[in-house]
Design brief:
This protein has 3 helices and 11 strands, in the order H-H-E-E-E-E-E-E-H-E-E-E-E-E. About 5% of the residues have low confidence. The longest helix has 15 residues. It has one domain: outer membrane lipoprotein receptor (LolB), chain A. It is globular and about 45 Å long. It has an 11-stranded antiparallel β-sheet, with helices on one face. By secondary structure, it is α+β, with helices and mostly antiparallel strands.
Length: about 200
Amino acid sequence: MKKIVILFLILFNVTAAPAQAVPDKKALEGLEVLRRGFSELTDFTAEITQEKQLALMKQKMVSRGMIRFRKPGTFFMELYPPHGSRLLMQDNVLSIRLTDQDTTDRMVLPPEQSLTKWMTILSRPITTLPEGMGVKGVRQGDSWTVHILPAGTGGVKELQITFDLEGRIKRLTIEERNRDRTVIRFTSMRRNVGLREKDFRLN
């Protein structure tokens, strides 16, 4: 479940890092579509299917669950049994609960990595791309895919975000350097449904 947090941090770096001298115009156009989609919502909920392919295993691990988000900085994700788990991120505080083991881990991220900070940056048009990070945008029909290749030798090799022309995310793909691969598909997405505090309970 920490892969979702990795996504947020990578997106934060894309919007906040020093600018490239000559940015990819398609990447800028695609990211701006995604940004506008987020700026026009107060919350959203969706069903998800996560497919995880480990390099050392032939069979995919498939989990189903749901995801919720509410501005300015509350994010919740649940995967259903048999590998049940829940993730709650409130601003820069991350909690993960393994429901079958009845254990909870908590982590405090630096303030500059908070969801509120990220949403503040996304409230402004994206006009630059980060220096030292590969970002490409491809449009096919009514869908965009933005490819993000983080700099350095970290665990994530490439992140792919596919979304429609209104900025609704359809699929996330995380390729890792150890050849593990995670795909998260979004269905039944609903925006501005009026989510409340009780919809983000970890227990």
